[in-house]
């Protein structure tokens, strides 16, 4: 591990996640941000937009997350987000209709 500001570069870990992440994308570098207490993955030298791992430990979930969030999957991710948002909007509209009907029943 090497220090860089408030981050620690993860080069060797118990499960070999840092090495295995490179098999997904050779540019990936994993760092632990001590200030924010989270793992971040950088592609190449660009430090402006890290992938923030939503886990408190570095394990196989990180690899699954990195595969899922690859730029090559952008269209599929956008479709997944759109489906989720459409379902959520339908649920909210249904809930709103139900509340409106209950309110009308109380008035009539």
What does this structure look like?
The protein has 108 residues and is α+β, with helices and mostly antiparallel strands. It folds into two domains: 1-69, no CATH class; 71-108. Helix content is 47%, strand content 20%. It has three helices and five strands; from the N terminus they run E-E-H-E-E-E-H-H. The protein has helices at residues 17-24, 60-68, 74-107; strands spanning 2-4, 7-10, 28-33, 38-43, 51-53. It has a five-stranded antiparallel beta sheet, with helices on one face. Strand 4 and strand 5 form a beta hairpin. Helix 1 (17-24) runs parallel beside helix 2. It is elongated, with a radius of gyration of 21 Å. The termini are far apart.
Write the layout of secondary structure elements.
Elements: E1 2-4, E2 7-10, H1 17-24, E3 28-33, E4 38-43, E5 51-53, H2 60-68, H3 74-107
Antiparallel strand pairs: 1-2, 2-3, 3-4, 4-5
Helix pairs in contact: 1-2
């Amino acid at each position: 591990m090497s220090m860089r500001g408030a981050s620690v570069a993860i080069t060797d870990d118990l499960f070999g996640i840092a090495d295995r992440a490179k098999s997904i994308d050779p540019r990936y570098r994993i760092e632990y941000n001590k200030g924010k207490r989270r793992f971040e993955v950088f592609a190449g030298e660009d430090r402006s937009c890290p992938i923030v791992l939503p886990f408190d430990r570095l394990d196989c979930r990180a690899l699954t997350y990195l595969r899922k969030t690859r730029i090559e999957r952008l269209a599929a991710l956008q479709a997944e987000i759109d489906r989720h948002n459409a379902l959520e909007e339908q649920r909210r509209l249904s809930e709103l209709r139900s509340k409106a009907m209950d309110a009308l029943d109380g008035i009539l």
